[in-house]
Amino acid sequence: MKTSLKYIVLLFSINFIEGSFRCDYKYSLKAQAWFKFVVVPANWFDARLRCSEEGAVLASPTSPEILVEMRNLMNRSYPEFEIFTGIHATVSQGDYYTIEGTPLSKIAVPWSENEPDNKDNVESCIALNGNGELADRPCEVTRPYICYRPEASHVEVSECGTVDPEYHLDKRTNKCYKFHTMPRNFSRAYLACSAEGGHLAIINSDVEATVLRELFAKYPDAKFFGNFRKDLAFIGFQDWGEKWDLRTVHGQTLLEAGYNKFAPGEPNDWTPGEACGGIFRSGLLIDVWCNKPAPFFCEKSTGFPNVCKALF
């Protein structure tokens, strides 16, 4: 009788899990969280950033259930490799915490043999091996990693097909847009849009230029903080390494994409480095410095990435 009752309670609990997240993550009932194994190695800083932009965090083995799931993912993919965890001492050497703020002293995972050794006093990030053991490693080397998101009930999926509330659908283009007011260089802006399931915005018509111009107008200079230009933002075109061969991030020329209206005197590339695409508040285009931070526009379709419910 007790066994039957437990089964009914478990079945009831499973059927009423309603959290949602990206379908490229897999839900673990035991850990009550979503996980994604990223096979393309990255340094610790890029791994942290990509997980964050996807709405997750760089995973750390903070519970036995999470450790089991991390090891299962590793052993199915790269059992012989270490992965980065979210445990780090990048703020203060030797003071290890997870990204969420859990101190290393509260994580009951053993060290690998002869670890930690802080070799050459540069090992400030913690890796996990397939045996479930930790080691300190340089943050700048590259390793696979796991992104993790705890289960959150009552997460709403927007009309843009995302749990990110900052994306909004514009009916004129049937596309979703997000304006990032935190400035980044072109490479980091590209990473952010990609991680969110979109790309740096590509203007395909006068109508779409108007959409971005109107969105930009909602953020006057006073809403930005920092020493950077507030009259322009990155969008998705660059010269792809050939001067004056300006193409979108999807490889089309601007004429092929459908919009090629530059501000007077642009593009000019007065100095080397003005090889990336931008838009003025007017909606006209400009070539800008790739390595100087600027706000930027992301664009995504309503159906990618797909969102799944945590149902079993």
What does this structure look like?
This protein is an alpha+beta fold and 312 residues long. It folds into 2 domains: 16-150, Mannose-Binding Protein A, Chain A, CATH 3.10.100.10; 168-300, Mannose-Binding Protein A, Chain A. It is 21% helix and 27% strand. The protein has 6 helices and 17 strands. The protein has helices at residues 2-15, 44-53, 64-77, 186-195, 206-217, 254-257; strands at 20-22, 26-28, 33-42, 57-58, 83-88, 125-128, 134-137, 143-150, 168-170, 175-184, 199-200, 232-238, 247-248, 276-280, 285-288, 294-300, 307-309. A 4-stranded antiparallel sheet has the order 2-3-8-4, with helices on both faces. The model is unreliable at 1-17 (pLDDT under 50).
- The proportion of residues forming helix, as a percent range, comes to 10-25%
Strand content: 25-35%
Using the coordinates shown, work out and report the CATH topology of the largest domain.
Answer: Mannose-Binding Protein A, Chain A
Low-confidence stretches: 1-17
Largest sheet: 4 strands, antiparallel
Shape call: globular
The helix-and-strand class reads alpha+beta
Q: Report how far apart the termini are.
A: 24 Å
Tally of domains: 2
Radius of gyration: 23 Å
Mean pLDDT across every amino acid position: 88
CATH superfamily of the largest domain: Mannose-Binding Protein A, subunit A
CATH class label of the largest domain: Alpha Beta
Give the helices and strands as they follow along the chain: HEEEHEHEEEEEEHEHEEHEEEE
CATH-scheme architecture of the largest domain: Roll
InterPro entries: C-type_lectin-like (IPR001304), C-type_lectin-like/link_sf (IPR016186), C-type_lectin/snaclec_domain (IPR050111), C-type_lectin_CS (IPR018378), CTDL_fold (IPR016187)
Keywords: Disulfide bond, Signal
Protein name: IML29
Pfam families: Lectin_C (PF00059)
